[in-house]
Amino acid sequence: MNLRNVALALQRSSSTSQTTQNEIQRTRDVVPHSDFSPSGIASPTITAWNTVGTAVDRHRKLAIDYEHVLKAVRKQRGFEDFLHAPKIKTLLPSIEHLDGPVVFINVHSSSCDALALSPNGGIKRIVLHRLTESQAQDLRSTWTRFLRSSGLRMRGAVSIDRLISKRTNMLGVVLERVWTWIVHPILEALNFFDDTPSRSHRLPHVTWCPTGPLTQLPLHAAGIYDRPAADRLHVYDHVVSSYTPSLAALLRCHKQPGTHQVYHPNVLVIAQPKTPGYAELPYTRDECERLRAVMPKYAHTVLLDKQGTVEHTLAAMNYHQWVHIACHGTQDAVDPTQSKFALYDGPLTLGALMTTVADSAELAFLSACQTAVGNKNIPEESAHLAAGMLAVGFKGVVGTMWSIYDADAPIVVEAYYKRLHKLRKSKKPGIIPPGYTGSAYALHWAMKVLRERVGEQNFVKWAPFVHFGV
Fold first, then answer.
1. How far is CA 156 from the centre of its chain?
2. What is the pLDDT of residue 247?
3. What's the CA dihedral at 403, 408, 414, 417 to 10 degrees?
4. Are 151 and 158 in contact (CB under 8 A)?
5. With contact defined as beta carbons under 8 Å apart, do 69 and 24 qualify?
6. Which residue from 310, 289, 284 is spatially nearest to 369, judged by alpha carbons?
7. How far, in Å, CA of 447 to CA of 236, rounded?
8. Where are the alpha helices (DSSP H) in 151-243?
9. What is the SS3 assignment for 364?
10. How many CB atoms lie within 10 A of CB 431?
11. Which CATH architecture fits 257-469?
12. How much is the pTM?
């Protein structure tokens, strides 16, 4: 909580008592010296830390006085809901501008179900009768165990071709169960099977907000792949998928100003073909060249190899609407804020990105690995690089759930930016709804291109790419 902003807002409120303002001010003065997290806010009655016996006593006192300050603030006119979760009715003006349903999937020992929030504010509960909490955990465990044992946590680290024949069946079973137990019942309840759009029509857009063990599963790749081609069932044949860490994050992304009216946004490209201490990624050069060829009229800033330092990257982000990062990336399971991009002179961490203000930011393409990996230790939180990029101000982010094959990245990047450029310059109404970027549909097309190249049963090659935001 930013107490400085709270104090300023209260000062501007005519209903705020001087006593409450003084309490907030004194709280601000005490908290910076505390060893505790922001959840512990000091009391105005505390005159010195040495009056409290133990750390446990101090923490208990802070917790009590935190509630005291909250109650004092909430008594002021206009601050009644301060730090409360917003009521759905207050969000309706923003929700009605969404271009499709947001689906929240809950996993619990008592029941598993989904809540589909429609743009008109309607909420539909969908009971997932065939899914249990233990089954969801088993699916997550099977999937993540495969990724760990196969080394699919680093871009280009293994020859994925070697893995396909051995483990396709296991991965296919996981994706089939995700389809049968989770995705199919949801799409059926939302009537997305009634009329499959023709080639000339736009597929509907679904934004997934999974919880618990489902945060680490590729819902966007669910389907049945072991049937004859004509009988196969895939989620991507019926909807375009995006993800969001929360409804609040999605609505924040939608509200942020974009560059839809800007025909040629500035593009920052960071590529690391030879990062010290990491395996070489020679195809990152090809990736950069294809991107520049697809969008020759766009203003580019390219930080290649030694130019791609942490300082240069952070400074340049403030002056570019689009950012493309091609390098190694890793998830820190112990401290997610230390998840990082491997740049030439050191790591660019999520923690560092959180301090970056990107007022003009719109799109980020994270062509690295583990940029959208959940953490089983904090399953309800999306503390990964893709979510971090949304938090610092980007409207849409493309990330990866596991390793991408170095040679495949240029194919995806070329198809993605070609499609995005085509969508952005289209004069046809409704191609890109207000507040959206077109990024989800561009990635959907790029995945189709890659599947046609590598085969749809090579899940490990095309399925890691995911879209977050709008």
1. 23
2. 93
3. -20
4. yes
5. yes
6. 284
7. 10
8. 161-178, 184-189
9. strand
10. 15
11. 3-Layer(aba) Sandwich (3.40)
12. 0.81
Question: What CA–CA distance (Å, rounded) separates 428 from 29?
Answer: 56
* In the block, residue with structure tokens 């085509």: 422
Do the beta carbons of residue 141 and residue 127 sit within 8 Å? Answer: no
Q: What are phi and psi of 355, to 5 degrees?
A: -95, 0
User: And the tokens for 47?
Assistant: 């005159």
Q: What span, in angstroms and rounded, lies between the C-alpha atoms of 358 and 329?
A: 21
Those residues with Cβ within 8 angstroms of residue 173's Cβ, 6 or more apart along the chain or in another chain: none
Above 50 in pLDDT, residue 43?
no
Token pair listed for 237: 């044949």
Lowest mean pLDDT of 175-179, 187-191, 202-206, 292-296, name the range. Answer: 292-296
Q: Which of 107-111, 218-222, 276-280 has the lowest mean pLDDT?
A: 276-280
Cβ(395)–Cβ(252) below 8 Å:
no
Provide CB contacts within 8 A for 254, sequence distance 6+. Answer: 94, 97, 98, 395, 435, 436, 470
Task: Please tell me if the domain spanning 89-243 has the same topology as the one spanning 257-469.
Answer: no
H/E stretch holding 224: strand 223-224
Determine contact, residues 70/85, Cβ cutoff 8 Å: no
* 68 in Cβ contact with 97 (< 8 Å): no
One DSSP character per residue, 278-313 reads S---THHHHHHHHHHHHSTTS-EEEEEGGG--HHHH
Among 8, 206, 57, CA closest to 126: 206
Q: Which of 76-85, 156-165, 237-246, 266-275 has the lowest mean pLDDT?
A: 156-165
State the fold for domain 89-243. Nucleotidyltransferase; domain 5 (3.30.420)
Domain definitions of the chain by residue range: 3-74, 89-243, 257-469
- For helices 3-12 and 18-30, angle between their N-to-C axes, nearest 10 degrees: 170
Q: Which residues pair with 328 in a beta bridge?
A: 342
Write b or e for each residue in 15-41: b if 16 or more Cβ atoms lie within 10 A of its Cβ, otherwise e.
ebeeebbebbebbbebbeebeeeeebb
Amino acid letter at 273?
P
Q: How far apart are the first and last CA of the chain?
A: 26
Measured in degrees and rounded to the nearest 5, phi and psi for residue 334 equal -80, -50
User: Residue 236 has which token pair?
Assistant: 């991507």
